[in-house]
Specification:
48% of the residues lie in helices and 12% in strands. It contains 13 helices and 8 strands. The chain has an 8-stranded parallel sheet. Strand 4, helix 6 and strand 5 form a beta-alpha-beta unit.
Length: 290
């Protein structure tokens, strides 16, 4: 593929140490991230569930739900998009369809995890994981289904919480051997755990620095020093947006005017700048001038 999004993601990874990947829950937030100079973006499964469907992150959303948001984001920005593919939405044929669909819809990569299909948020208790062999099958199917060989297949393991660090490392080695391009160790709680993992694997490592979870909010420098190659902020903007929206609705409900909120709002001109509004308007004027 000449216009490979996977190749873009790999280039961003090689040009940054570590690469910051920010969560974008819709096309407009992707534009905001691009305008700020970010080089890679992310679509969270939990974000799709909450923001697009209004349901919890419990494996309720479907591949089609995710593809709707993927297509909207990739149509709006040229930034490489990493997508949360949960457990792949089924068996081998379903996983194959997931990979091919994500590539067709413009994604640069995906991560697939070793939880059971009735999954939970990675930072919640009582997670269940599949056997190492079942996850290997998921990875091999994903890799075999690539129509763009640069599409990034990232293996996520939730094994630390259930089986401990040694098992998480053993699984990571098996996943690397199965062909995973990168590794996503979920809910690590100490920098030393990343250090130990890095001793055993050669593929890039992602640290999920999500707020209010099990992983402390480690800084990029200390993560890089611990062997981490990518730092993910999956729902940081969404959480801030949601809190702001709550404040707005409360103010309107209980007060006479929203005027006190103006200082916290993006202005109309700022919105138009992000959307390149005036170039669209000028084009209309050109097309329909007498």
């Amino acid at each position: 593929m000449n216009n490979s999004q996977g190749k873009k993601l790999k280039a961003a990874l090689s040009n940054n140490s570590p690469l910051k990947i920010v969560g974008t829950i819709n096309a407009y937030t992707a534009l905001l991230a691009e305008k700020e100079g970010h080089e890679a973006i992310y679509l969270s499964g939990g974000g799709v569930a909450a923001s697009s469907l209004g349901v919890p992150d419990l494996g309720i959303s479907s591949l089609q739900d995710v593809l709707v948001d993927v297509e909207r984001i990739t149509n709006a920005t040229s930034l490489p998009l990493l997508v949360d593919a949960d457990t792949g939405w089924g068996g081998a044929f379903n996983i194959s369809r997931t990979v091919k669909s994500l590539i067709n819809y413009g994604a640069a990569g995906m991560h697939i995890e070793d939880q059971v299909s009735q999954k939970r948020c990675g930072h919640r208790p009582n997670k269940e994981i599949v056997s190492t062999q079942e996850m290997i099958d998921r990875i091999k199917t994903s890799v075999d289904s690539k129509t763009d060989q640069d599409f990034v297949v990232m293996a996520r393991t939730d094994a630390l919480a259930n089986e401990g660090l040694e098992s998480a490392i053993e699984r990571a080695l098996a996943y690397q051997e199965a062909g995973a391009d990168a590794l996503f160790p979920e809910a690590f709680i100490k920098l030393e755990q990343y250090v130990e993992l890095k001793k055993h694997i050669t593929i890039p490592i992602l640290a999920n620095i999500t707020e209010f979870g099990q992983t402390p909010l480690f800084g990029c420098d200390e993560l890089a020093d611990s062997g981490v190659d990518m730092v993910l902020y999956p729902l940081t903007a969404f959480r801030a947006m949601s809190k702001a929206a709550e404040m707005v609705y409360r103010e309107i409900k209980h007060n006479n005017s929203q005027e006190s909120l103006l200082k916290n709002m993006q202005t109309r001109d700022e919105l138009y700048d992000v959307l390149d509004y005036h170039s669209f308007e000028n084009k209309l004027d050109e097309l329909f001038k007498d």
